[in-house]
Protein backbone atom coordinates (compact mmCIF):
# COMPACT_ATOMS: atom_id res chain seq x y z
CA UNK A 1 0.00 0.00 0.00
CA UNK A 2 1.39 3.38 -0.89
CA UNK A 3 0.72 6.31 1.34
CA UNK A 4 1.35 9.91 0.54
CA UNK A 5 2.30 12.10 3.46
CA UNK A 6 -0.48 14.56 2.80
CA UNK A 7 -3.93 13.61 1.64
CA UNK A 8 -6.67 15.66 0.07
CA UNK A 9 -8.97 17.33 2.63
CA UNK A 10 -11.84 15.03 3.48
CA UNK A 11 -10.20 11.90 2.05
CA UNK A 12 -10.05 9.04 4.56
CA UNK A 13 -6.70 8.41 6.24
CA UNK A 14 -5.01 5.10 5.46
CA UNK A 15 -5.44 2.64 8.33
CA UNK A 16 -2.55 2.41 10.81
CA UNK A 17 0.37 0.29 9.65
CA UNK A 18 2.14 -2.25 11.87
CA UNK A 19 5.00 0.21 12.30
CA UNK A 20 2.52 2.81 13.52
CA UNK A 21 1.07 0.46 16.16
CA UNK A 22 4.68 -0.12 17.25
CA UNK A 23 5.21 3.65 17.50
CA UNK A 24 2.10 3.95 19.70
CA UNK A 25 3.25 1.05 21.89
CA UNK A 26 6.68 2.65 22.32
CA UNK A 27 5.21 6.08 23.04
CA UNK A 28 3.07 4.58 25.82
CA UNK A 29 6.27 3.58 27.66
CA UNK A 30 6.78 7.27 28.51
CA UNK A 31 3.17 8.04 29.55
CA UNK A 32 3.20 9.66 32.98
CA UNK A 33 7.01 9.76 33.06
CA UNK A 34 7.11 13.46 33.92
CA UNK A 35 10.24 15.58 33.59
CA UNK A 36 12.84 12.94 32.79
CA UNK A 37 15.08 12.15 29.83
CA UNK A 38 13.59 9.79 27.25
CA UNK A 39 16.44 7.84 25.59
CA UNK A 40 15.02 5.95 22.63
CA UNK A 41 17.37 3.79 20.55
CA UNK A 42 16.17 2.86 17.08
CA UNK A 43 13.82 4.61 14.67
CA UNK A 44 10.44 3.42 15.98
CA UNK A 45 11.22 4.22 19.66
CA UNK A 46 12.55 7.65 18.56
CA UNK A 47 9.33 8.43 16.71
CA UNK A 48 7.41 7.12 19.74
CA UNK A 49 9.28 9.32 22.22
CA UNK A 50 8.73 12.43 20.09
CA UNK A 51 5.05 11.54 19.74
CA UNK A 52 4.73 11.16 23.53
CA UNK A 53 6.38 14.54 24.00
CA UNK A 54 4.11 16.23 21.45
CA UNK A 55 0.97 14.78 23.03
CA UNK A 56 0.61 13.26 26.50
CA UNK A 57 4.12 13.67 27.98
CA UNK A 58 5.06 17.31 27.22
CA UNK A 59 7.72 17.59 29.97
CA UNK A 60 9.99 14.84 28.61
CA UNK A 61 13.57 15.77 27.79
CA UNK A 62 14.92 14.58 24.44
CA UNK A 63 18.36 14.73 22.84
CA UNK A 64 19.42 15.13 19.23
CA UNK A 65 21.08 11.71 19.52
CA UNK A 66 24.40 13.37 20.37
CA UNK A 67 25.17 16.03 22.95
CA UNK A 68 22.25 18.47 22.75
CA UNK A 69 18.92 18.57 24.56
CA UNK A 70 16.33 19.77 22.08
CA UNK A 71 12.75 20.98 22.25
CA UNK A 72 9.83 19.63 20.23
CA UNK A 73 10.65 22.04 17.39
CA UNK A 74 14.39 21.34 17.51
CA UNK A 75 15.32 24.34 19.65
CA UNK A 76 18.43 23.63 21.71
CA UNK A 77 17.54 23.81 25.40
CA UNK A 78 20.53 22.19 27.01
CA UNK A 79 23.86 20.39 26.84
CA UNK A 80 24.27 16.69 27.59
CA UNK A 81 27.65 15.29 26.52
CA UNK A 82 28.33 11.61 27.24
CA UNK A 83 29.91 12.21 30.63
CA UNK A 84 26.86 14.17 31.84
CA UNK A 85 24.55 11.64 30.25
CA UNK A 86 26.18 8.94 32.39
CA UNK A 87 25.79 11.14 35.49
CA UNK A 88 22.11 11.56 34.60
CA UNK A 89 21.75 7.77 34.36
CA UNK A 90 23.24 7.42 37.84
CA UNK A 91 20.72 10.00 39.08
CA UNK A 92 17.89 7.89 37.67
CA UNK A 93 15.81 10.59 35.95
CA UNK A 94 15.70 8.75 32.66
CA UNK A 95 13.79 5.99 30.89
CA UNK A 96 15.81 4.27 28.19
CA UNK A 97 14.44 2.01 25.46
CA UNK A 98 17.32 -0.14 24.21
CA UNK A 99 17.62 -2.74 21.48
CA UNK A 100 18.38 -6.38 22.20
CA UNK A 101 20.20 -9.01 20.17
CA UNK A 102 18.93 -11.55 22.72
CA UNK A 103 16.35 -11.22 25.49
CA UNK A 104 15.34 -13.96 27.93
CA UNK A 105 12.22 -14.63 29.97
CA UNK A 106 13.43 -12.61 32.99
CA UNK A 107 14.49 -9.67 30.86
CA UNK A 108 18.22 -10.32 30.71
CA UNK A 109 19.46 -8.61 27.55
CA UNK A 110 22.50 -9.23 25.35
CA UNK A 111 24.01 -6.86 22.79
CA UNK A 112 27.61 -7.97 23.22
CA UNK A 113 28.27 -11.35 21.65
CA UNK A 114 26.78 -14.57 20.33
CA UNK A 115 28.29 -17.71 21.85
CA UNK A 116 29.24 -17.96 25.50
CA UNK A 117 32.75 -19.38 25.05
CA UNK A 118 36.06 -17.87 24.07
CA UNK A 119 36.36 -16.71 21.34
CA UNK A 120 32.76 -15.62 20.73
CA UNK A 121 30.98 -17.10 17.73
CA UNK A 122 29.93 -13.58 16.71
CA UNK A 123 31.32 -10.44 18.25
CA UNK A 124 28.60 -7.80 18.45
CA UNK A 125 28.65 -4.25 19.79
CA UNK A 126 29.66 -4.74 23.42
CA UNK A 127 27.77 -4.15 26.67
CA UNK A 128 27.67 -0.36 26.10
CA UNK A 129 25.67 1.20 28.97
CA UNK A 130 23.28 -1.70 29.49
CA UNK A 131 24.63 -2.66 32.96
CA UNK A 132 24.48 0.90 34.32
CA UNK A 133 21.12 1.60 32.67
CA UNK A 134 19.35 -1.41 34.12
CA UNK A 135 20.59 -0.80 37.68
CA UNK A 136 19.77 2.91 37.71
CA UNK A 137 16.79 3.95 35.64
CA UNK A 138 13.62 2.48 34.11
CA UNK A 139 14.50 0.40 31.06
CA UNK A 140 12.40 -0.91 28.19
CA UNK A 141 13.35 -2.84 25.07
CA UNK A 142 12.48 -2.61 21.40
CA UNK A 143 12.73 -5.65 19.11
CA UNK A 144 11.79 -4.89 15.48
CA UNK A 145 11.76 -8.57 14.41
CA UNK A 146 10.28 -10.86 17.03
CA UNK A 147 11.82 -14.34 16.68
CA UNK A 148 13.26 -17.26 18.63
CA UNK A 149 16.72 -15.97 17.75
CA UNK A 150 16.04 -12.89 19.88
CA UNK A 151 13.65 -14.24 22.52
CA UNK A 152 15.84 -17.03 23.88
CA UNK A 153 15.73 -19.29 26.94
CA UNK A 154 19.12 -17.98 28.11
CA UNK A 155 21.19 -15.08 26.77
CA UNK A 156 24.84 -15.73 25.86
CA UNK A 157 25.98 -12.71 27.89
CA UNK A 158 24.01 -10.71 30.44
CA UNK A 159 24.46 -7.04 29.50
CA UNK A 160 21.12 -5.63 30.69
CA UNK A 161 20.19 -7.14 34.06
CA UNK A 162 16.99 -9.20 34.28
CA UNK A 163 14.68 -9.82 37.26
CA UNK A 164 16.28 -13.12 38.32
CA UNK A 165 19.75 -11.56 38.48
CA UNK A 166 18.44 -8.37 40.12
CA UNK A 167 16.76 -10.48 42.84
CA UNK A 168 20.18 -11.82 43.87
CA UNK A 169 21.40 -8.28 44.62
CA UNK A 170 18.38 -6.56 46.20
CA UNK A 171 20.26 -3.62 47.77
CA UNK A 172 22.32 -2.73 44.71
CA UNK A 173 19.37 -3.34 42.39
CA UNK A 174 16.91 -1.20 44.35
CA UNK A 175 16.31 1.02 41.30
CA UNK A 176 16.05 -1.89 38.84
CA UNK A 177 12.82 -1.49 36.87
CA UNK A 178 12.16 -3.13 33.50
CA UNK A 179 9.00 -1.52 32.19
CA UNK A 180 8.04 -3.07 28.88
CA UNK A 181 9.19 -4.84 25.76
CA UNK A 182 7.74 -3.75 22.43
CA UNK A 183 8.18 -5.95 19.38
CA UNK A 184 6.64 -5.96 15.93
CA UNK A 185 4.14 -8.51 17.29
CA UNK A 186 3.04 -7.02 20.58
CA UNK A 187 3.74 -5.52 23.98
CA UNK A 188 5.14 -7.39 26.99
CA UNK A 189 5.97 -6.69 30.61
CA UNK A 190 7.34 -8.57 33.62
CA UNK A 191 4.26 -8.28 35.83
CA UNK A 192 4.30 -11.88 37.05
CA UNK A 193 5.12 -13.07 40.60
CA UNK A 194 8.59 -14.29 39.54
CA UNK A 195 9.31 -11.38 37.17
CA UNK A 196 9.06 -13.45 34.01
CA UNK A 197 7.80 -12.01 30.75
CA UNK A 198 4.08 -11.61 30.14
CA UNK A 199 2.12 -10.75 27.03
CA UNK A 200 0.27 -7.46 27.52
CA UNK A 201 -1.23 -6.86 24.08
CA UNK A 202 -0.91 -8.04 20.50
CA UNK A 203 -0.85 -5.61 17.59
CA UNK A 204 -3.99 -5.84 15.43
CA UNK A 205 -3.63 -8.75 12.99
CA UNK A 206 -1.30 -10.75 15.25
CA UNK A 207 -2.48 -13.90 17.03
CA UNK A 208 -1.35 -15.13 20.45
CA UNK A 209 -0.27 -18.36 18.80
CA UNK A 210 1.98 -16.45 16.41
CA UNK A 211 3.62 -14.71 19.37
CA UNK A 212 4.13 -18.00 21.24
CA UNK A 213 5.67 -19.64 18.17
CA UNK A 214 8.12 -16.78 17.72
CA UNK A 215 9.20 -16.84 21.38
CA UNK A 216 11.86 -19.29 22.56
CA UNK A 217 10.59 -19.60 26.14
CA UNK A 218 7.24 -20.13 27.89
CA UNK A 219 5.42 -16.81 27.97
CA UNK A 220 2.84 -15.83 30.61
CA UNK A 221 -0.38 -15.16 28.71
CA UNK A 222 -3.50 -13.81 30.44
CA UNK A 223 -6.87 -15.24 29.50
CA UNK A 224 -7.92 -12.13 27.63
CA UNK A 225 -5.24 -10.52 25.50
CA UNK A 226 -6.28 -7.10 24.24
CA UNK A 227 -5.06 -5.48 21.06
CA UNK A 228 -2.58 -2.62 21.18
CA UNK A 229 -4.67 0.55 21.25
CA UNK A 230 -5.57 2.48 18.11
CA UNK A 231 -3.72 5.70 17.41
CA UNK A 232 -5.87 8.80 17.57
CA UNK A 233 -6.37 10.83 14.42
CA UNK A 234 -4.07 13.52 15.86
CA UNK A 235 -1.36 10.95 16.59
CA UNK A 236 -1.49 9.52 13.08
CA UNK A 237 -1.20 12.98 11.63
CA UNK A 238 1.79 13.79 13.85
CA UNK A 239 3.56 10.54 12.99
CA UNK A 240 2.95 10.82 9.25
CA UNK A 241 3.31 14.52 8.62
CA UNK A 242 5.38 16.01 11.43
CA UNK A 243 7.70 13.45 13.02
CA UNK A 244 8.45 10.92 10.28
CA UNK A 245 7.23 12.20 6.91
CA UNK A 246 9.96 10.19 5.14
CA UNK A 247 8.46 6.96 6.51
CA UNK A 248 11.66 5.66 8.11
CA UNK A 249 9.51 3.66 10.59
CA UNK A 250 8.41 1.45 7.71
CA UNK A 251 12.01 0.46 7.02
CA UNK A 252 12.41 -0.84 10.57
CA UNK A 253 9.04 -2.63 10.51
CA UNK A 254 8.08 -3.38 6.89
CA UNK A 255 4.42 -4.07 6.22
CA UNK A 256 3.70 -7.80 5.99
CA UNK A 257 7.37 -8.69 5.54
CA UNK A 258 9.05 -12.00 6.14
CA UNK A 259 6.62 -14.03 8.21
CA UNK B 1 58.66 28.06 28.01
CA UNK B 2 58.45 24.47 26.83
CA UNK B 3 57.71 24.04 23.14
CA UNK B 4 56.11 20.61 22.82
CA UNK B 5 55.74 20.53 19.04
CA UNK B 6 56.68 17.22 17.44
CA UNK B 7 55.68 15.11 14.46
CA UNK B 8 53.36 12.13 14.70
CA UNK B 9 56.30 9.82 14.02
CA UNK B 10 58.31 11.47 16.80
CA UNK B 11 55.42 11.01 19.22
CA UNK B 12 55.03 7.34 18.29
CA UNK B 13 58.80 6.77 18.57
CA UNK B 14 58.40 7.48 22.29
CA UNK B 15 55.94 4.60 22.71
CA UNK B 16 57.04 1.04 23.51
CA UNK B 17 55.62 -2.39 22.81
CA UNK B 18 53.58 -3.80 25.69
CA UNK B 19 52.32 -0.38 26.80
CA UNK B 20 48.81 0.35 28.02
CA UNK B 21 47.62 2.99 25.59
CA UNK B 22 44.50 5.14 25.96
CA UNK B 23 42.92 6.45 22.75
CA UNK B 24 40.49 9.38 22.98
CA UNK B 25 37.38 10.17 20.95
CA UNK B 26 34.32 7.95 20.89
CA UNK B 27 33.32 5.32 18.33
CA UNK B 28 33.91 6.95 14.96
CA UNK B 29 34.13 10.45 16.42
CA UNK B 30 37.24 12.62 16.79
CA UNK B 31 39.68 9.74 16.91
CA UNK B 32 43.42 10.58 16.71
CA UNK B 33 43.64 8.70 13.42
CA UNK B 34 46.85 10.40 12.18
CA UNK B 35 48.56 9.15 15.36
CA UNK B 36 47.02 5.69 14.84
CA UNK B 37 48.36 5.72 11.26
CA UNK B 38 51.80 6.66 12.62
CA UNK B 39 51.51 3.79 15.07
CA UNK B 40 50.75 1.46 12.15
CA UNK B 41 53.96 2.67 10.44
CA UNK B 42 56.00 1.86 13.57
CA UNK B 43 56.85 -1.56 14.98
CA UNK B 44 55.12 -0.92 18.34
CA UNK B 45 53.01 -3.95 19.20
CA UNK B 46 51.58 -6.12 22.04
CA UNK B 47 49.47 -3.17 23.18
CA UNK B 48 46.72 -3.00 25.75
CA UNK B 49 44.25 -0.47 24.35
CA UNK B 50 41.81 1.50 26.49
CA UNK B 51 39.30 3.07 24.13
CA UNK B 52 35.65 3.86 23.45
CA UNK B 53 36.34 1.84 20.39
CA UNK B 54 36.03 2.77 16.75
CA UNK B 55 38.27 2.34 13.69
CA UNK B 56 41.32 2.98 15.92
CA UNK B 57 40.71 -0.40 17.52
CA UNK B 58 39.75 -2.06 14.22
CA UNK B 59 42.91 -0.96 12.41
CA UNK B 60 45.35 -1.73 15.20
CA UNK B 61 43.67 -5.11 15.76
CA UNK B 62 43.76 -5.92 12.04
CA UNK B 63 47.49 -5.12 12.01
CA UNK B 64 48.01 -7.51 14.93
CA UNK B 65 49.22 -4.81 17.34
CA UNK B 66 46.71 -5.37 20.14
CA UNK B 67 46.96 -8.03 22.79
CA UNK B 68 44.11 -6.82 24.96
CA UNK B 69 41.32 -4.28 24.69
CA UNK B 70 39.50 -2.56 27.57
CA UNK B 71 36.23 -1.11 26.34
CA UNK B 72 32.43 -0.94 26.59
CA UNK B 73 31.88 -1.15 22.82
CA UNK B 74 33.47 -0.92 19.40
CA UNK B 75 31.44 0.75 16.64
CA UNK B 76 31.78 2.82 13.48
CA UNK B 77 28.48 4.61 14.36
CA UNK B 78 27.06 4.77 10.82
CA UNK B 79 28.28 1.18 10.39
CA UNK B 80 27.14 -0.37 13.67
CA UNK B 81 29.70 -3.18 13.91
CA UNK B 82 33.46 -2.75 13.27
CA UNK B 83 34.43 -5.55 10.84
CA UNK B 84 38.17 -5.73 11.60
CA UNK B 85 37.55 -5.75 15.33
CA UNK B 86 34.96 -8.52 14.93
CA UNK B 87 37.33 -10.60 12.83
CA UNK B 88 40.09 -10.27 15.44
CA UNK B 89 37.72 -11.21 18.25
CA UNK B 90 36.20 -14.15 16.42
CA UNK B 91 39.63 -15.54 15.51
CA UNK B 92 40.60 -15.40 19.19
CA UNK B 93 43.58 -13.10 18.58
CA UNK B 94 42.27 -10.27 20.73
CA UNK B 95 41.56 -10.50 24.46
CA UNK B 96 38.73 -8.35 25.76
CA UNK B 97 38.13 -6.81 29.16
CA UNK B 98 34.58 -5.68 28.74
CA UNK B 99 33.25 -2.99 31.06
CA UNK B 100 30.14 -0.84 31.05
CA UNK B 101 30.35 2.78 29.76
CA UNK B 102 29.94 4.20 33.27
CA UNK B 103 32.54 1.79 34.63
CA UNK B 104 34.89 2.99 31.88
CA UNK B 105 34.34 6.66 32.83
CA UNK B 106 34.71 5.92 36.56
CA UNK B 107 37.93 3.97 35.81
CA UNK B 108 39.46 6.96 34.01
CA UNK B 109 38.36 9.27 36.83
CA UNK B 110 39.94 6.96 39.42
CA UNK B 111 43.23 7.05 37.52
CA UNK B 112 43.05 10.84 37.07
CA UNK B 113 42.44 11.19 40.83
CA UNK B 114 45.19 8.67 41.70
CA UNK B 115 42.63 6.44 43.43
CA UNK B 116 42.90 2.63 43.22
CA UNK B 117 39.19 2.33 42.39
CA UNK B 118 35.84 4.12 42.46
CA UNK B 119 32.54 2.51 43.45
CA UNK B 120 29.94 2.39 40.70
CA UNK B 121 26.39 1.06 40.57
CA UNK B 122 26.93 -0.79 37.31
CA UNK B 123 28.02 -4.30 36.48
CA UNK B 124 26.47 -6.07 39.48
CA UNK B 125 24.15 -8.83 38.24
CA UNK B 126 25.61 -8.65 34.72
CA UNK B 127 28.25 -10.80 33.04
CA UNK B 128 30.89 -8.05 33.01
CA UNK B 129 31.52 -9.39 36.51
CA UNK B 130 31.90 -12.99 35.42
CA UNK B 131 34.75 -15.07 36.88
CA UNK B 132 38.04 -14.17 35.24
CA UNK B 133 37.07 -10.53 34.77
CA UNK B 134 39.38 -9.57 37.63
CA UNK B 135 36.73 -7.15 38.85
CA UNK B 136 35.91 -7.03 42.54
CA UNK B 137 33.15 -5.48 44.59
CA UNK B 138 33.18 -3.08 47.52
CA UNK B 139 30.60 -2.80 50.31
CA UNK B 140 29.42 0.55 51.60
CA UNK B 141 30.70 1.09 55.18
CA UNK B 142 27.50 3.00 56.03
CA UNK B 143 24.12 1.66 57.18
CA UNK B 144 22.88 0.93 53.64
CA UNK B 145 25.48 -1.80 53.19
CA UNK B 146 25.13 -1.65 49.41
CA UNK B 147 27.52 -3.57 47.21
CA UNK B 148 29.13 -1.85 44.23
CA UNK B 149 31.67 -2.70 41.59
CA UNK B 150 35.07 -1.38 42.68
CA UNK B 151 36.06 -0.14 39.25
CA UNK B 152 39.86 -0.23 39.15
CA UNK B 153 41.74 2.83 37.95
CA UNK B 154 42.43 2.71 34.21
CA UNK B 155 46.02 3.92 34.49
CA UNK B 156 47.64 4.57 31.13
CA UNK B 157 51.27 4.55 30.08
CA UNK B 158 50.33 6.96 27.31
CA UNK B 159 47.28 8.67 25.84
CA UNK B 160 46.59 9.76 22.26
CA UNK B 161 43.85 12.32 21.62
CA UNK B 162 42.84 14.63 18.76
CA UNK B 163 41.38 18.11 19.28
CA UNK B 164 40.36 21.00 17.08
CA UNK B 165 43.00 23.50 18.25
CA UNK B 166 46.00 23.62 20.55
CA UNK B 167 48.88 25.93 21.32
CA UNK B 168 52.52 24.84 21.21
CA UNK B 169 52.55 24.30 24.97
CA UNK B 170 49.73 21.75 25.01
CA UNK B 171 46.63 23.76 25.88
CA UNK B 172 44.01 21.88 23.88
CA UNK B 173 40.61 23.06 22.68
CA UNK B 174 37.54 21.20 21.43
CA UNK B 175 35.01 23.13 19.35
CA UNK B 176 32.39 20.44 18.74
CA UNK B 177 29.40 19.54 20.91
CA UNK B 178 31.05 16.82 23.01
CA UNK B 179 34.44 16.73 24.75
CA UNK B 180 34.16 12.92 25.03
CA UNK B 181 36.67 11.79 27.69
CA UNK B 182 39.81 13.31 26.16
CA UNK B 183 40.85 15.41 29.18
CA UNK B 184 40.47 12.37 31.43
CA UNK B 185 42.60 10.24 29.09
CA UNK B 186 45.37 12.86 29.36
CA UNK B 187 45.01 13.09 33.17
CA UNK B 188 45.02 9.28 33.53
CA UNK B 189 48.22 8.87 31.50
CA UNK B 190 51.92 9.15 32.31
CA UNK B 191 52.41 10.80 28.91
CA UNK B 192 49.84 12.34 26.60
CA UNK B 193 50.15 13.26 22.93
CA UNK B 194 47.65 15.75 21.53
CA UNK B 195 47.20 16.09 17.81
CA UNK B 196 45.07 18.94 16.52
CA UNK B 197 43.69 20.38 13.31
CA UNK B 198 45.61 23.61 13.76
CA UNK B 199 48.23 24.94 16.17
CA UNK B 200 47.49 28.56 17.06
CA UNK B 201 48.89 31.25 19.35
CA UNK B 202 47.64 30.93 22.91
CA UNK B 203 45.82 34.27 22.67
CA UNK B 204 43.89 33.06 19.64
CA UNK B 205 42.31 30.15 21.54
CA UNK B 206 39.83 32.39 23.36
CA UNK B 207 39.29 35.01 20.64
CA UNK B 208 36.35 33.27 18.99
CA UNK B 209 35.44 30.58 21.52
CA UNK B 210 34.47 30.52 25.19
CA UNK B 211 37.13 29.63 27.75
CA UNK B 212 35.14 26.47 28.63
CA UNK B 213 36.27 24.95 25.32
CA UNK B 214 39.82 24.72 26.70
CA UNK B 215 39.52 21.05 27.60
CA UNK B 216 43.08 19.81 27.96
CA UNK B 217 45.57 21.62 30.17
CA UNK B 218 49.22 21.79 29.25
CA UNK B 219 50.55 20.22 32.47
CA UNK B 220 48.99 16.93 31.32
CA UNK B 221 50.48 17.07 27.80
CA UNK B 222 53.84 15.74 26.63
CA UNK B 223 53.67 16.44 22.92
CA UNK B 224 51.64 18.54 20.45
CA UNK B 225 51.25 17.40 16.85
CA UNK B 226 49.75 19.55 14.11
CA UNK B 227 47.69 17.15 12.02
CA UNK B 228 45.16 18.72 9.65
CA UNK B 229 42.45 16.13 8.83
CA UNK B 230 44.07 14.17 11.64
CA UNK B 231 40.78 12.56 12.67
CA UNK B 232 39.89 11.45 9.12
CA UNK B 233 37.78 9.38 8.42
CA UNK B 234 36.08 9.92 11.78
CA UNK B 235 34.22 13.15 12.52
CA UNK B 236 35.86 16.28 13.89
CA UNK B 237 33.02 18.76 14.39
CA UNK B 238 32.87 21.58 13.47
CA UNK B 239 35.96 21.31 11.24
CA UNK B 240 34.54 18.36 9.28
CA UNK B 241 31.99 15.59 9.48
CA UNK B 242 32.68 11.88 9.33
CA UNK B 243 33.66 10.73 5.82
CA UNK B 244 30.94 8.09 5.62
CA UNK B 245 31.68 7.12 2.02
CA UNK B 246 35.31 6.44 2.83
CA UNK B 247 34.42 4.72 6.10
CA UNK B 248 32.14 2.40 4.14
CA UNK B 249 35.02 1.67 1.81
CA UNK B 250 37.20 0.87 4.84
CA UNK B 251 34.49 -1.39 6.28
CA UNK B 252 33.97 -3.34 3.06
CA UNK B 253 37.55 -3.69 1.82
CA UNK B 254 39.70 -6.62 2.97
CA UNK B 255 42.26 -5.24 5.41
CA UNK B 256 45.44 -6.17 3.44
CA UNK B 257 44.11 -4.40 0.36
CA UNK B 258 43.02 -1.35 2.36
CA UNK B 259 46.34 -1.16 4.22
CA UNK B 260 48.36 -1.51 1.03
CA UNK B 261 46.46 1.20 -0.80
CA UNK B 262 46.11 3.78 1.97
CA UNK B 263 48.62 3.06 4.73
CA UNK B 264 51.83 2.26 2.89
CA UNK B 265 53.28 5.76 3.14
CA UNK B 266 53.22 8.80 5.40
CA UNK B 267 50.29 11.07 6.24
CA UNK B 268 50.71 13.07 3.02
CA UNK B 269 50.61 9.85 1.00
CA UNK B 270 47.46 8.84 2.90
CA UNK B 271 45.71 12.08 1.98
CA UNK B 272 46.77 11.70 -1.65
CA UNK B 273 45.52 8.11 -1.74
CA UNK B 274 42.16 9.19 -0.28
CA UNK B 275 41.91 11.97 -2.88
CA UNK B 276 42.62 9.63 -5.75
CA UNK B 277 40.11 7.09 -4.36
CA UNK B 278 37.50 9.85 -4.21
CA UNK B 279 38.15 10.85 -7.82
CA UNK B 280 38.39 7.33 -9.22
CA UNK B 281 36.01 5.16 -7.26
CA UNK B 282 32.96 7.20 -6.40
UniProtKB/TrEMBL annotation, chain A:
<dbReference type="InterPro" id="IPR037171">
    <property type="entry name" value="NagB/RpiA_transferase-like"/>
</dbReference>
<dbReference type="Pfam" id="PF01144">
    <property type="entry name" value="CoA_trans"/>
</dbReference>
<protein>
    <submittedName>
        <fullName>CoA-transferase</fullName>
    </submittedName>
</protein>
<dbReference type="InterPro" id="IPR004165">
    <property type="entry name" value="CoA_trans_fam_I"/>
</dbReference>
<comment type="similarity">
    <text>Belongs to the 3-oxoacid CoA-transferase subunit B family.</text>
</comment>
<dbReference type="GO" id="GO:0008410">
    <property type="term" value="F:CoA-transferase activity"/>
</dbReference>
TrEMBL record, chain B:
<dbReference type="GO" id="GO:0008410">
    <property type="term" value="F:CoA-transferase activity"/>
</dbReference>
<dbReference type="Pfam" id="PF01144">
    <property type="entry name" value="CoA_trans"/>
</dbReference>
<protein>
    <submittedName>
        <fullName>CoA-transferase</fullName>
    </submittedName>
</protein>
<dbReference type="InterPro" id="IPR004165">
    <property type="entry name" value="CoA_trans_fam_I"/>
</dbReference>
<dbReference type="InterPro" id="IPR037171">
    <property type="entry name" value="NagB/RpiA_transferase-like"/>
</dbReference>
